Amino acid sequence: MSLKQDKAVELKQRTGDAHYNCCQAVACVFSEETGIDEITLRKLGAGFGLGMGCTEATCGALCGAQMILGLMKYNGKPIRQNAAELYKKFESKCGATICKVIKGSNESKKILCSCDDCVRNAVEIVESEII
Fold first, then answer.
1. What is the residue-wise DSSP string for 82-130?
2. Predicted TM-score of the model (pTM)
């Protein structure tokens, strides 16, 4: 496990005002690589908690990974292929891309991956894509 994965999970596990959602935890550990301060990355990821906008839709960790991929790979051309590959890798590691399915809060009630592991997996995938 990388230091970034550990740091992202630590951010996710904080409580109170210091708490980061899954998207923020993933995005913020790449502050140095993106050249964007952690406060700005945290603000950008604020609406992606509990599955994009608290709807239990697309996993926030995946959203954060895609945001960082765009910041690191975009050079004026679309990054659709890179984004699709990241999506597929995340789905393979976590079992799904939809928050409520991953957490087992859908009809199946089967937990596919913990939020901490989704954060770890998203950071690992980004690291493999950009570093």
1. HHHHHHHHHHHHHS-SBHHHHHT-STT----S-HHHHHHHHHHHHHHHH
2. 0.93
